[in-house]
Design the sequence.
């Protein structure tokens, strides 16, 4: 059976007015000293805990990544930006077991507010399809062309850059183009 095509998932699944202003997370400030302390803690934990910290990526490259994180946060940051920095850094380790978790405030916001689309997806190349849906009118196999005006191919590319890739799981292999 041919899949139906959904142009903009956000409008179809949630409704244009369903997301109020409270759906957007209010990032919390982290001063530079605390942010640098967090980067040091991250480095210490990664060098001591996972046995494969440098299995796929040279320590020198990881050290450069940590130095870049320190430069980025030394004058302060937000919990949202820190989450993205950590996620991007952890992708370099290429272990799908080593992932950043949302900060507590962000996780709490997500639990009480509709911030994510009610679908799970799969992608094939640069095409995005609904795998499971919790929304009326969206079915398995529907193709998503864009979300909030952003083309599916762009979303796939940006998301794949954040996937810790050990190349052993389906999602990691797909994100790597295999």
Sequence:
């Amino acid at each position: 059976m041919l899949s139906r095509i959904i142009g903009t998932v956000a409008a179809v699944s949630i409704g244009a007015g369903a997301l109020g202003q409270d759906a957007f997370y209010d990032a919390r400030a982290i001063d530079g000293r605390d942010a640098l302390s967090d980067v040091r803690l991250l480095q210490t934990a990664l060098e001591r805990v996972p046995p494969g910290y440098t299995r796929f990526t040279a320590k020198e490259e990881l050290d450069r990544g940590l130095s870049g994180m320190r430069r980025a946060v030394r004058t302060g940051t937000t919990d949202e930006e820190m989450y993205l920095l950590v996620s991007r850094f952890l992708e370099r380790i290429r272990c799908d077991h080593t992932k950043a978790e949302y900060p507590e405030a962000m996780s709490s916001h997500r639990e009480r507010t509709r911030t994510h689309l009610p679908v799970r997806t799969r992608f094939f190349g640069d095409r995005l399809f609904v795998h499971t849906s919790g929304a009326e009118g969206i079915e398995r196999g529907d193709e998503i062309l864009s979300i909030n005006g952003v083309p599916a191919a762009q979303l796939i590319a940006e998301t794949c850059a954040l996937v810790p890739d050990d190349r052993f799981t389906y999602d990691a292999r797909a994100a790597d183009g295999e």
